[in-house]
Amino acid sequence: MIEFDSLLREMGRVGSPQKIQLFLLMLPGFFAAMHMGSNVFIGAEIEHWCEFDDNKTNLEQTCNNNWTDSQDARYRAYDPKVETTQMSQCKRYDLSTLNATTDEQVCEYWWPSTNDSERLNKTLECENWVFATDGVFQSTIVSTFGLVCGQTFKRKLSQAFFMCGVAFGATFWGQVSDRRGRKTAVIAASLCAACFSVANTFAPTFYFFLLARVLIGFTVFPPFSSAFVLATELVPPKYRVMVAQACQMAFAVGFCTLALLGYFIRNWRTLQLVIALPLFTSIIFYWTLLESPRWLISRKKFVAANEIVKKLLKGIGKSSDFKEATKLEEAATRGTRIVRQHKTDNYELDDDVSATKHQYGPADLLRTPNVRRKSLVLFYSWLTASCGYYGLTLNAADLGGDPFVNLCLSGIIEVPACIVSIFLMDKWGRRPTLSSSFILAGIACIAMQAVTKEMRELNIVLSLAGKFGSSAAFATVYIYASEIYATPIRNVGIGICSSCARVGGILAPFIAMLGNLSAPLPYVVFGLLSISAGLACLLLPETNGTQLPETIDECESFGTNQLNPLRRIFCCEKEVVIESVVLNDTDHKYEECNRNDQLVINDEEKAIEQI
User: Residue 81 class from Cβ within 10 Å (0-12 exposed, 13-18 middle, 19+ buried)?
Assistant: First the structure.
């Protein structure tokens, strides 16, 4: 059987063609980040007041006076919930109760001769509003669609619907990626996202905007997932972590770029158009992006895989210099027949390749017990990472201070988080890195309940610490999923995991609304979720330095010989089982364990001799 991981190990390094591919594969994440975080600006609150329905000009001419804030105060009701001098943004006085039959009486009400003149008692909800255009933002969906007072919840609803689109899109495009190829999924989804995003710029109503946001979510994020998978499949295992984190850093750069664009573009329609147009550049992927050789081999498309491998080997060597490349080339020259190598170095040829094909789907993630357990833990980990990540990101503007600086800092903190996680994943392994990242985020979030809103700097520091942990966890769990799942279900697995992450993204704005009941409550929920996920991920096997599983059977058996950390914590002794012989390590002073805490024993006599 052709082992693509073995071929990558034989190559030993990343050549120029691979570097070009990796650069191209960073772009979908960069584009996706700008759309994921755009609601911070396009849905920002704007100061507003009740609009005066009558003709001010006629009143000014009749009464021979100019309209000032004093007249506004006799139309807009005071807000008793704040203070007696603060006008309500949602209520006005009912002018129909004004007992004035002459122009003099009308003028006396609007321009009273004494300061203690009484106002009307009856109030009504405002029908129309005036929005400030000289504030932080010139216009947002709040001012365009009147999402104030009783309609404020629609701001959160738009972000939740966007995440719903991402959730369904991750599943749909994940299957497209596994069945039609990574390249096809990236190009098709990106171009669809470009069209929907441009249409959203000209949304005439809120519900049109809402539909467009769902469709953008459905198409803009899946290319990032497919590109992420493709990037990790193109490099040797020793570079896998670095490449994966580079993809995450491209996402962080997208957030920072959005903050920069938002600073200079204060109109939401213009900002939406500016972040939409770059998506059309994805058409160049048709000529420049290569399909995943690993995916082609898994689909028995040896001819196409061989052509791409030859391109990747330019500057490194010839196909004949590499054992696996030679096997692939031989398979390609023999048409669609599969090449399998026996232990005797002979080759077996299967004439009917189509009979071996199997369409894998989400059900395969839960079909067998070991894969099911890994999947459930990964699902919860992704949900929690996303919930904390987007909860802290989208609430960055609510911490006080400049919203553009806050979002930029929230993006910048992801870069050191990715760099640190690269070091820790290679030094500690994937499992302890993921666990500690979740726990760090959880502690930071829970600590925020002890900080008052007036302590703005400390709030920002704790929020950034939580974002650091969530970003590191998100980056690590991406790599974890791509390494745990076998090639035939890898993309659909990441797609389902990504859907679970979007569920977390959907929950994040609603969890944030718990702050209306108690200000610290949202952060307590984020913190408890993160800490529980940090413990749950200890049930996953370590994948550091291992070979990616190529088949479902390999995925099922992967990690079964590793010692579970929870058992190490809660049990007083460890056991090494060799057939029917059980050796208790408390009776021996020496034990040889590799960095992944596993002892693989193939020969009984050799194992006993080592002990």
Answer: exposed
Question: How many CA atoms does the CB half-sphere of 238 hold within 13 Å?
Answer: 8
d(CA 90, CA 427): 57
Q: Quick one: DSSP state of residue 358?
A: -
Find, among 598, 591, 486, 592, the residue nearest to 542 by Cα. 598
CA angle 351, 298, 561 (to 5 degrees): 115
Token output for 473:
């966890």
Residue 155 parent element (H or E): helix 153-180
Is residue 27 scored above 80 in pLDDT? Answer: yes
Q: What sign does the dihedral 420-426-430-435 (CA atoms) show?
A: negative
Q: Could you tell me which residues come within 8 angstroms of residue 568 by beta carbon, excluding any fewer than 6 positions away?
A: 574, 597
Question: Would you state the torsion angle of the CA atoms of residues 24, 467, 45, 136, taken in this order, to the nearest 10 degrees?
Answer: -70
Give the three-class secondary structure for 78. strand
Q: Which helix (H) or strand (E) holds 199?
A: helix 182-201
Q: What percent of the chain has pLDDT over 70?
A: 80
Note the maximum CA span of the chain.
112
E strands in 296-439: 338-341, 347-350
Q: What is the pLDDT of residue 80?
A: 56
Residue 153: how many CB atoms within 10 A of its CB? Answer: 13
Burial label for 538, CB within 10 Å (0-12, 13-18, 19+), is middle
Residue 587's pLDDT is what?
37
Q: CA 2 to CA 5: how far, in whole Å?
A: 9
CA angle 321, 324, 327 (to 5 degrees): 100
